[in-house]
Amino acid sequence: MLPVRRLLAQPRFPSFSPARSSSNSSHKRYDVIVVGGGHAGTEAAAAATRIGAETLLITQKIQTIGALSCNPSMGGIGKGHLVKEVDALDGLMGRAGDYAGVHFSILNRRKGPAVWGPRAQLDRSRYKEFIQSELLNMPRLTVIEGSVEGLLVSAADPEQPGKHRVTGVRMADGGDKILCSSVVLTTGTFLSGSLFMGRTTSPGGRMGEAPSCAGLSHSLKEVLGLKLGRLKTGTPPRIIRETVNFSLTQLQLPDPQPTPFSFINTHTHCKPEEQIPCHLTVTTPGVDRVVRESLPVNSHVQQDTKGPRYCPSIESRVLRFPGRQHQVWLEPEGLNSDLIYPQGLSMTMPPEMQLRLIREIPALSQAEIHTPGYGVQYDFVCPTQLFPWLQLKSVQGLFLAGQINGTTGYEEAAAQGLWAGVNAGRTALSLPPLSLSRTESYIGVLIDDLVVHGVTEPYRMFTSRAEFRTSLRPDNADLRLTPKGREEIGCVSQHRYQEAVRVQQGLTEALSTLNSISLSPPCWREKLSDVGISENKSTLISGEEMLLYTDVSFSMLASTFPDLLSPYLEFAERIKIEAVYRPHCEKQQREMERMREEESLSLPPDFDYFSQQVSLSNEVREILDRARPSTLGAAMRLKGVTPAATVHLLNYVTKTDRKTRGK
Amino acid sequence: MSLSRCWRRALRMTAVRLRVRVRCDSSVSSAAGPVDTIYALSSGQGRCGVAVVRVSGPAAGGALRSVAGLSRALPAPRTALLRSILNPQTNEVLDRGLVLWFPGPHSFTGEDIAEFHIHGGPAVINGVLQALGSLPGLRPAEAGEFTQRAFHAGKLDLTEVEGLGDLIHAETEAQRRQALRQMAGDLGQLYNDWSQRLKRCLAHVEAFIDFSEGDLIEDGVLNQVDLDVPQLQMEIENHLCDERRGERLRSGVQVVIAGSTNVGKSSLFNILCQRPAAIVSPIAGTTRDIVETSLDIGGFPVLLSDTAGLRDTGDCVEKEGVRRARHMVELADVTLVLVDSTQLPQEPPMVSGFLREYLMNVLPSGNNYKQQRLLILNKIDLLPKEHISAIQNVLTQTSDLAPVCILSCHSREGLERFLTLLQDRLKTLCGDPLAGSPSLTQTRHRAHLQNCVEALNQYYQYRNVDLALAAEGLRLGLSSLGRITGKVGAEEILDVIFRDFCIGK
């Protein structure tokens, strides 16, 4: 998939023309410069300004800011968690989704609130419209069109870890130098990107747009000496809507009542009845046949660059699981769009074979292709070179977010963008950088996985990656992150904060009121006759405990005790979830606290693991030296680091701590 | 106070209140968040009259009351009390011994501690450990956990902390070897098989959670899991009930004699057992299989093994012998590396290089710490005196090898010094209560299996209500099994998912 907008191509404009403000933007010094206007870049720029940093966003074309380059949808299982968390930290994505969504559904509705996946089909133009109007009206943010050719690098500040220091960017075509304290790079698939269709290969990061300048790649690889890797992805052909025979597909309706992504929205822009459906169809043996015929003329498939295992092209699906029916989702591209996005038919064969392939599917037997599918291969920066605050360990002031770190997906990009923006802003304003823990957020899980283990394939979020899944639910992202976002991070508005406070107080009060209601089993049986309370039960049961029964809802209790409970009816669903999950979350508390404690012990980034100060085996020394974990917690998650080694490290950290405190 | 802290505190207060209600009669330690209570044998093994079992954590008081049959009050702090020690499930009297009560924070770990001073026999110790394991909230301590808790409570001074890493290393190593010995047989295969099957169940449930609905997954996925989980649970339960379960438990410090052929390994073996247990001949390759015997050396239980000489050979029987010998060395607590001193280089400066290479050959894994091996130069009766002192000179200047003994099995010269050195090693090893105690490993395994069975119940409880919580039960079960067979990470689960399913979106 190609979620992140390209930005580093040669400018279409002979010299970049500022869109908003700043005929003198090139002479001004900024706190933060964000390169790229995709999901990572827009969140980064918005977050940096929320922190209070004077920010410049450089994008190739202002009109493509906030474009959805691949699938016209967002959220889903695991990814929906990320959207809720970005929103809880006052990011753009959740609200943009509520504005642009045309088909809302909560996946996994029957599988428990911890794994609910809020998801929406989006109208591409509405999404873009929302993001652009937000960014272009944001105080402290300047947006210009242009292309960055290289980074300005100087000697490192000796007080801080790192070998270099970034001081600004150099624009392409003999353009100006623009100075700043922090740079956030969000170049998506454009870093040495090449496009594949059939046997043809051309440089570029996205079809129809110019390739990026070699300068930036050169800066990263040669000047800064970073380790790069290569990954691949792809996108399906777009099909003309009126050529599809929908009568041969299965209708997929949205939820009758759309649930907004954002905690501060009570409803979505799209009215329930205005939502539009999706359609489902399946592949046939003919599809298998075309795939096999296409292999000799399909160079993308023959490459052994790593692609994602979970979002495979139709070619790799057929090759890995031959003889099966594969699902194809026909998704609308928007309310007024003539195009259909066939989810599941990402392909890189020559265009004439693409047409043959889709016509093997009965519903598409007359279909016409508007734009053919293609593959992309691109460079990424091995993310183990990053601190958990997404700054490169070796370059002061340089932050990376999105596909450049080896991830895939809009939501993954947005989450990193937000966090990189927060820290780029904080660093520029001389505030200490921050990291999010695995124990408090999926964003923390995502970043920790990236910086500790690196990637071998494009990284996507799954709920099974979060060991504290029971506690990190989409419903409570605001309670987990919004207060912290205001009080510690500084990226949350007063308005949102107050709303979170109100919700928090409401929930706390509701739960303690529930606990104040305590009745004997016969009393409960009398009040709620349909609930099967066990005959053996003889102790008093509190209102909260009653909610543990599957068929007891908060509104049932509220109608039994209207005076006490009806004030909290707006939180009915959340109270039920809190009550059911509380015992399980408490079980995880101890382990979460231990992990937090371990993560609070930082290891010096320039620590000499080969020195004799700590006694470690040579094997462990090498692992630690290679990975350079930022905290003791991260060190413990590395394969091959023994309990004994962690204790030695712990001793070392505590000792140095005491020494510094003694000073 | 910050808002988030407010919320967390509110939750925690409720949690604390709940706990207080549940155990209103036990003294709840002031630590925030629930803490496990751990127990372990904390005295050494060997010829000891008294064994000490220690329990630390919030449930220690409760444990003391139920095992010592105290109905109400706890003993006065730090005062010994003579009680019958009971199995609280069966009320069977296990022993009569002293119990002590150290309420936190004035204890070694800063938590509540109960101590049981009981008779040193393995049956009594096992009985008490199993009785403790049957109490809710108690689990066997991990390596070095008592010391670690003391460290976190600020009860150790810096020099003691220095030693903590080494202690944990020693304990984990000892446990690892002990577990390896037990896991090598059918038992290991059984546990690994369970772990594999549970991993697959979890992966399939996770696939159903993370992908399904319009993605890929056939509805039948969970049906298979619904069959597999109870089957697995039943097998583990049967195993726990099976009184014949244990493989023969072999107590003692595992001492292995290894080296090239014809260096006198079997002679040393026979000297140590004081009878001609192994055949000795001048023919290289006489010993082909492991010869094993239980001994008492200086009061310490030892399991001594003689092994085939290490050499490349075409003989398939001897080849197998060499393979077994190498395996034995892997499992050893102490390796006696034997060298024929007549084979040493003539030039004394070359000796240390030769020995270093020799050691590398016998102990290629490098896993064995210096203190776990003794280098023995045999047959010194065949060398001139001045040559011996030249060698001794060189060796005193080389510190990185291993402790060296120079002796002759034939003339028995140097044997006394060797025995003293060996006894010192045994003393250190036996002082560590975890080393070489199979029953303890077994208790630990049983506790983990029990936890696994209980965690699996959560799967049924939530299977039709909340699949995330059902999966959590499988995860907890797998992590309990993982404490025996090795941890299973999120990536491995994903690997199974992508191997077994074609994921669409």
How is this fold's topology laid out?
The complex is a heterodimer of chains A (about 675) and B (about 500).
Chain A: E1 29-35, H1 39-51, E2 55-59, E3 73-75, H2 79-88, H3 93-100, E4 101-107, E5 117-122, H4 124-136, E6 141-145, E7 148-155, E8 164-171, E9 177-185, E10 194-197, E11 200-203, H5 214-223, E12 228-235, E13 238-240, E14 250-252, E15 278-282, H6 285-294, H7 299-302, H8 314-320, E16 327-332, E17 339-343, H9 351-359, E18 369-371, E19 374-381, E20 395-396, E21 398-400, H10 410-428, H11 442-453, H12 477-489, H13 494-516, E22 518-519, H14 521-527, E23 541-542, H15 543-546, H16 554-560, H17 562-565, H18 572-599, H19 618-627, H20 632-636, H21 643-662
Parallel strand pairs in A: 1-2, 1-9, 2-6, 8-20, 9-21
Antiparallel strand pairs in A: 3-5, 4-5, 7-8, 8-9, 10-11, 10-19, 12-19, 13-17, 13-18, 14-15, 15-16, 16-17, 22-23
Helix pairs in contact in A: 1-10, 2-10, 2-12, 3-4, 6-8, 6-9, 12-13
Chain B: H1 3-22, E1 37-41, E2 50-56, H2 60-67, E3 81-87, E4 92-102, E5 113-119, H3 122-133, E6 138-140, H4 145-152, H5 158-183, H6 186-210, H7 221-241, E7 253-259, H8 265-273, E8 291-297, E9 300-306, H9 316-331, E10 334-340, H10 351-362, E11 373-378, H11 385-397, E12 404-406, H12 415-431, H13 438-462, H14 467-485, H15 490-500
Parallel strand pairs in B: 1-6, 7-9, 7-10, 10-11, 11-12
Antiparallel strand pairs in B: 1-2, 2-5, 3-4, 4-5, 8-9
Helix pairs in contact in B: 3-13, 6-7, 6-14, 6-15, 7-13, 13-14
